[in-house]
Amino acid sequence: QLQLAESGGGLVQPGGSLRLSCKTSGFTLRYYPIGWFRQAPGKEREGVSCISVGGGTTKYADFVKGRFTISRDTALDTVYLEMNTLEPEDTAVYYCAAGFRGTSGCERGAPAYNFWGQGTQVTVSS
Asked: How far is CA 71 from CA 13, 36, 67, 124, in A?
């Protein structure tokens, strides 16, 4: 069973920063496109960002452009989501997900992803 695990969430003040990490057990993350999603209470899950297998393609939702950066460290087999200038509206559970092995590019829609982590809570509040 392929498993992903997110970490790095927490409580931060508006304007602050957090870095989320996505790691895996049971498979090598580097061969999969990875997406970050979030779900706030009472709202639908939404795609935040994604990164292709080689890291050459990244995509962002309009509401995080210029504030969030997705990256992957092949040596550590980890994908990161650097979140800056956080706003209360960013409060949500954040999930990473792995797409289909060998897929070129990446997509922000959930149907493109096959394996999901359990999520990490991000709370932005003063």
From this structure: 24, 11, 13, 22
- Residue at 103: amino acid letter: T
Tens of pLDDT, residue by residue, the chain (126 residues): 678 999 999 999 999 999 999 999 878 888 999 999 999 999 999 999 999 998 999 999 999 999 999 999 999 999 999 999 999 999 999 999 999 988 899 998 989 999 999 999 999 999
Name beta bridge partners: 121: 93
Assess contact for 41 and 113: CB atoms under 8 A: no
CB-count burial class (<10 Å; 0-12, 13-18, 19+) for 61: middle
Which of 9, 7, 5, 3 is closest to 124 using CA atoms?
9
